[in-house]
Amino acid sequence: xxxxxxxxxxxxxxxxxxxxxxxxxxxxxxxxxxxxxxxxxxxxxxxxxxxxxxxxxxxxxxxxxxxxxxxxxxxxxxxxxxxxxxxxxxxxxxxxxxxxxxxxxxxxxxxxxxxxxxxxxxxxxxxxxxxxxxxxxxxxxxxxxxxxxxxxxxxxxxxxxxxxxxxxxxxxxxxxxxxxxxxxxxxxxxxxxxxxxxxxxxxxxxxxxxxxxxxxxxxxxxxxxxxxxxxxxxxxxxxxxxxxxxxxxxxxxxxxx
Length: 257
Prior knowledge:
Blueprint: E1 5-9, E2 12-17, H1 36-51, H2 56-66, E3 72-75, E4 100-101, E5 108-110, E6 116-118, E7 154-157, E8 160-163, E9 175-178, E10 185-188, E11 203-206, E12 215-218, E13 236-243, E14 246-255
């Protein structure tokens, strides 16, 4: 499905376009427009973008779970409020510079800024069953991958059975199969290709460093990041955050403990 919305992007009137992803880092956010008309335009554009990503909250939860327990997130720093974040001028989508095939296959592309794009899809490779499980075995559901037979592509991770995928067909709606080092995993996705997004706002993925999951959604004119790598601190994550009815990707800080 392709979403369409009228609005102003980068000073150019756009017709037949819609929104959903990240553009600049917080440090490079443009100055806010103080005019009432400009503020209204930003709010209208953001609300239109929210329509193309009804499952963005699930994407943020998937990323948090992969980081080990779903930390509480705050905008910019502890105790931040909506008033702390200035309005963002609508901007064009950010292209993928120097796209390289993912080492794990599946047709995913890694951009120079470490965000992801979706190229020509193919099945994810599988290294299952493995000779040894993921250790240490902190649970007793399994000892080896072959113990996990509840669904296809079962593997033993830290003593617990988990199940992977090799194609999008094995994942539910609003998800896709993201290839990993040993097998693919179903991850939250508000889009599966650029065809699901407005023109010039590509389907973009965030794959945080050190985890085996990712989230995908269309870029929007109000995003301030595309991936965790755009954030100024390793404790910050690029996630969807509704603000006064406007949804966009922005860097938020873990509030641990």
